[in-house]
Request: fold
Amino acid sequence: MTLAELMARAGEVCEFCGAGDRLGGVELPPAGALLLCAQCRGDRPAPDDHWRCLEGAAWSQEPVVQWAVWRRLGSLDAAWAGEVRDNMVLLPEVEGWINLPSAVEHRDAHGALLAAGDTVVLVKDLVVKGANFTAKRGTAVRGIALVPDNGGQIEGRVEGQRIVILTEFVKKK
Reply:
């Protein structure tokens, strides 16, 4: 789908939060593409309360938007996000995508299979580039998200920062 088609479908606003600036298309296999602002894409840091916009976006009738909201809610640590995700009324095709087996397996340092939403523990100190801190060994990372096209990477929140972590440096809790 072209950017012009996305803009027309979304009414020239972010399909998560409704912002109208710095919009860009994001491809989300197998669903397609959606239009997001810089904060919702992760290009700019977003305050935690920014993600409350997902409560409204969860009611979208666009399958790709529902899929993206369901995935993003699963990556948030807040209790409200889990409640919203649990109470979503998903379109049939979105339910099918949720139950699709992943073509890429994510395994921890000891070979245990990882799934979205798992809690992992860091097995070594990790210097976080660009954030000026070191994630210490033993730090728990809750509600991980799997990088769909790379079995060696997961995403999680450490010290309030959303970071990509190599699976070789974590163990499933």
The helical segments are 3-10, 38-41, 54-57, 63-75, 79-86, 92-98. The beta strands are 24-28, 32-36, 120-122, 126-128, 133-135, 140-141, 145-146, 153-158, 161-166, 170-172.
